[in-house]
Specification:
316 residues; mainly beta; five-stranded antiparallel beta sheet; globular
Length: 316
């Protein structure tokens, strides 16, 4: 999720990209994106074809807004039914879905299934009529744990944030274990940074650095990683990992106002999961420690200006 800080006040105009504002629920799919109902949409990300993928935390489902017909399709899970199961599309079950990322090269989708303490992998989308296969990375449990190893051996504890590097490695903000995990292309899990079970805010090499409740993370176009640490209400950290070294870039408090994930559409459109719908801020400018140009990107820290109003967003 993201928290919002308003830096300047000014009237603004936004439009609804998908969903019905302030109304949660479910809608049989396919349905036009503006007629759809969502239930606490959390993570959003684009694939290389321009389809928008959405995790519905309240519905335990994964939906897609098709780039061609602009309709919402249920692609995995069953509305309102939580649980744990692998399988084809709607046969799969999830519990407390969080962030979602798409490998733009392979089309494979990764989802943080926090309630099951695992990462779910979904096969690439090919067409509307072909189900996508849901599999699991990690050992399912309701209590969580910590273990490195293969996809059936590894354990997570409240995985929340996800990011993919240029080589297709998936990085996990493993909140309950206070560390950053890495999943390679074969599904093998290692600890990338931090020390499991040892919270802290120590900077230094990734071998000695410590994190406290790392909630979200992402890469800049040049390959640096930003991590959000939520220590407590008013002492939270933006950490940067560059060339194997962890440093603290910012300390911030938690203001009022919590909204959902964000994604960039083209050069200048910001999409945000907010109030049970997806809102569109057109013609915006962005700065997140780097300038975003022509890339669809799932961000961790973003300075966002729309019609002379500037905001700062932190993913939670």
């Amino acid at each position: 999720m993201v928290v919002l800080i308003s830096l300047m006040s000014n009237a603004q105009t936004v439009t609804t990209f998908a969903g019905t504002p302030l109304t949660n629920g479910t809608t049989p799919t396919p349905v036009d994106k503006l007629s759809a109902l969502f239930n606490n949409p959390w993570g959003i990300d684009y694939d290389a074809q321009g389809n928008l993928w959405i995790t519905e935390n309240g519905n335990h489902t994964i939906c897609m807004i098709n780039a061609t017909d602009k309709k919402v399709y249920l692609r995995a899970g069953s509305f309102g039914i939580s649980g744990f199961a692998n399988g084809n599309g709607t046969d799969a079950r999830f519990n407390d879905l969080r962030e979602i990322v798409v490998n733009k090269n392979t089309g494979e989708i990764y989802v943080a299934d926090r309630g099951n303490n695992v990462i779910r992998k979904i096969s690439a989308f090919t067409n509307i009529n072909t189900p996508q296969v849901v599999t699991t990375i990690g050992k399912q449990s309701t209590t969580g744990g910590f273990a490195n190893g293969g996809p059936t051996v590894a354990e997570f504890n409240e995985p929340n944030g996800l990011a993919i590097d240029a080589n297709g490695n998936v990085f996990v903000a493993d909140m309950g274990n206070n560390c950053i995990r890495k999943i390679d292309a074969s599904g093998n899990v290692t600890t990338y940074a931090g020390k499991a079970g040892q919270p802290g805010n120590t900077d230094g090499s990734i071998a000695i650095a410590k994190f406290t409740n790392p909630a979200s993370l992402d890469f800049t176009p040049t390959g640096f990683m930003y991590v959000i640490d939520f220590k407590d209400t008013w002492n939270n950290y933006v950490r940067k990992i560059k060339n194997g070294e962890v440093s603290t870039s910012m300390i911030f408090g938690m203001p009022n106002g919590v909204v959902g994930g964000i994604a960039i559409q083209g050069d200048s459109n910001l999409l945000m999961a907010l109030n049970n719908c997806i809102r569109l801020f057109p013609g915006s400018s962005y700065y997140a420690g780097y300038r975003i140009t022509g890339k669809e990107m799932h961000l961790t820290v973003i300075f966002f200006t729309f019609q002379s109003t500037t905001y700062v967003y932190f993913l939670k």
